[in-house]
Structure formats: C-alpha cells, structure tokens
Amino acid sequence: MKIAVVCANGRAGRLVVKEAVERGLDVTAVVREDNQSVAPHVIKKDLYDLTKEDLAGFDVVVDAFGAWAPEDLPGHSTSLKHLCDILSGTDIRLCIVGGAGSLYVNKEHTLCVADGADFPEIFKPLASAMAKALSELRERHDVKWTYISPAGDFQAEGERTGQYILGGEELILNEKGESIISYADYAIAMVDEITKGNHIQQRISVVRK
Q1: DSSP assignment, residue 32?
Q2: CB proximity list for 189: less than 8 A, separation 6 or greater
Q3: Which CATH number does the domain housing residue 141 bear?
Q4: How many helices and strands, by DSSP H and E, does the chain display?
Q5: Phi first, then psi: what are they for 33, rounded to 5°?
Q6: Which sign does the torsion angle of CA 201, 131, 98, 71 carry?
Q7: Where does the signal sequence lie (predicted)?
Q8: How confident is the model at residue 10 (pLDDT cuts 50, 70, 90)?
Q9: Residue 84: how many CA atoms within 13 Å on its side-chain side?
Q10: Nearest Cα to 45, choosing from 78, 13, 5, 17?
C-alpha cells in the first residue's frame, strides 16, 4: 500500500510516518523543507503547490496539516480544499488529522466540546477554524475522505500504549472517565484506518483505552 503523508515534518505527521513505515507500508513524506521523518521517499513541495500528478498512484493521502498562529488559522480550510480539489473524482482516500473541539456532546448533535463553559478560551479560535474546515469537508461528495478526531486531551509526548477505543461523532470517554490519547496511539489508529478502515465520508474519533 502506497501512502503520502502531507506535512510529514509536523509532530503528528512524523509519528504517522513512523508507524506506517514500521508496518511495511510504502511511505512518501511531503515536506516543505528537509525531511525529518523516516519515510523512504520524499516530495519536497509546499502543500499548496501539490498537483494531481504529484499524488497520482497513491492509495491514501494523509493530511497532517496543523496551524496555531491566529494569522494561519484560515489555512485549515484552504489547505484541505486544495487537497480535496486535486483528489476530486479519484479513488485515492484522504485521511485527515482532525480536532476534538467539534465532537458532539449531546445526542441531538447541537452542542460541541468547544461550546462548553470550561473549554479554554485560548483554544477557541483553533477549534472554530477546524470546525469550519470539517463543515466544508462534509460538503465534498467527490472525495473519499475520513476525518479522525483525537480525544480532548491530545498529548504530543504521551506514551504509546498500543490500545485505543474507536468512536464516532460524539465525544467518548474510556473506563476511567478520561478523554485522552497520545500522538503515538493516534498514529496507530490512523494507520489502522488506512489499512483496514472503510469510514468513507465519515468523521470518527479515538480515545485511549
């Protein structure tokens, strides 16, 4: 299986590459600058310069784009739109490293994590930008996308336990009542979805078991 990881030098991207390589997938890292991952192949290009030809022949493209600075937040929408446009009408799957703020906290799907009174104010602009990108993605019926939301507490330096619980649109908790997952366990879930998943045009979520 051939996969391309876009923004492979990011914290999530590097771990997805590592997990995929260790499982024997044929991995290409798409990076703007020198590759810091263990991918055997590299495309050195800005995400916005990628073309349909660059991504032809892959089975799955992973979008690991991340932006936190206020001026860069619109990139969540524009970068995802660009990838969708160049994958439109193809059989190439697009798996997106998503956010947790847009997960629903009621069965009516009218309230999200980011709507909670205890949601940190500092993260609201990011959650809003990622929710907007997801909303726009839901309108793309021409792309085989899967959006994977992490747990509320997404830990970059967290341990790799090798276990997780798969959820859907609603925030789920583990047996300890936690919404937590490490980047390493998230990478396991991402590669599982790449190799075995069939959640086409769906948002799924993961939490540490």
Answers
A1: S
A2: 148, 164, 166, 181, 206
A3: 3.40.50.720
A4: 5, 10
A5: -120, -165
A6: positive
A7: none
A8: very high
A9: 22
A10: 5
* Residue span of the structural domain in which 193 resides: 2-208
pLDDT in tens, 116-156: 999 999 999 999 999 999 999 999 999 999 999 999 999 99
| pLDDT surpasses 80 at 35 | no
Per the CB < 8 A criterion, the answer to whether 101 and 132 are in contact is no
Rounded average pLDDT over 188-192: 98
Other C-beta atoms lying within 10 Å of the C-beta of residue 7 = 23
For β-strands 144-149 and 202-208, DSSP reports them as parallel
CA distance 31 to 116: 36
In a 3-state reduction of DSSP, which class is residue 182? strand
For 160, other C-beta atoms within 10 Å of its C-beta total 14
- Concatenate the DSSP letters of all residues of 114-153 into one string: GGSTTS-GGGHHHHHHHHHHHHHHTT-TTSEEEEEE--SE
**Under a CB-based contact definition with an 8 Å cutoff, are residues 47 and 7 in contact?**
yes
pLDDT at 204: 98
Q: Is 0.90 surpassed by the pTM of this model?
A: yes
Structural domain tally of the chain?
1
What residue type is assigned to position 186 of the chain? Y
